[in-house]
Structures are given as structure tokens and as C-alpha cells.
Amino acid sequence: MEKSLVLIKPDAVQRGLAGEIISRLEKKGLKIVAMKMLRMDGALAQRHYAVHTGKAFFNDLVDFITSGPVIAIVFQGKNAVEVIRQVMGATDPAKASSGTIRGDFGIDIGHNLVHGSDSLDNASGEIDLFFSAEEILSYDRDLDT
Ligand code: DAT
Ligand code: MG
Fold first, then answer.
1. How many H-runs (helices) and E-runs (strands) does the chain carry?
2. Model-level pTM greater than 0.70?
């Protein structure tokens, strides 16, 4: 079963939207298998967003993601990577469809509330940045059977 990394970004924590975001992903059917709150430092931010190094928005992105606490969550489920991207909506909240997290709660591409891994390969690398193997739990839920 696929696993993907979600970050509830500093703007969502500040605005009291953490529960709403977790709830939407949980209600979709995804299972939380790891979760922690942390303040990312510059080194972690640069590694997490390494693919964007050198882009015009990179420094603002690192400043933003380190500006306050985030909640890092590993969600597990069928097609978790793609399903999470659908529930999140398009990168630019101004263009994201209504009914998605970004479409319903955001307007600014630099403050788009939530991160979700964009491929299975990247999910695995991103999960390893935030969690040790022991922090990722394996358990059954009644609704999965
Ligand atoms: P996503 O978060 O949807 O995977 P991404 O990986 O292309 O999007 O970019 C990472 C983050 O960088 C994104 O969530 C918000 C910011 N970002 C992307 N493109 C941007 C742009 N053109 N201007 C400002 N910030 C941008
Ligand atoms: Mg991305």
C-alpha cells in the first residue's frame, strides 16, 4: 500500500486549519501511520525542496516553510500519492478547484497550506527526511477489512 508525506504548512497551522486538513484526508479513507509537529530548519527545508533550488521563488519558499511549526504526516492508502494530490488541489490556490483544500482555503501560491509528495519515489525520500523507520506504525483498521 502506498505511503506519502503530507506537510500542514505554517499558514495552515497559524489559521487553525490543521484539523480541517487532517479530517479531509482521513475521511477520504487515508490512514495516518506517522505524525509529528516540528519547526523545520533551513537545512531540512533546502533538502525537502532541493528540486526547486535556484528557482526565483526558492528563498521565499524556504523562508516561509521555516517561519513557524508544521505538522508532518505519513498517510497510507491505495494510490495515496495521487489521491492526496487530488484532495489538495492545484499548486496555485487561486486556480485550484472548489472542493479541494487549496481551492477552498487559499488564494496565494506562496501560502498554499499543504504539501503532498508528487511521486512514489519522492514520497519515499521525503518520508525518510522527516521520520525514522520506527516512527512509522503498522496497524489495521476495521474499515480497511
Ligand atoms: P506542489 O506543492 O503543488 O508540489 P511545487 O512542488 O511545484 O508545487 O512547488 C513547491 C512549492 O513552491 C509550492 O507549494 C508553492 C511554491 N511555488 C511553486 N511555484 C511557485 C511560484 N511560481 N511562485 C511562488 N511560489 C511557488
Ligand atoms: Mg511539489
1. 7, 4
2. yes
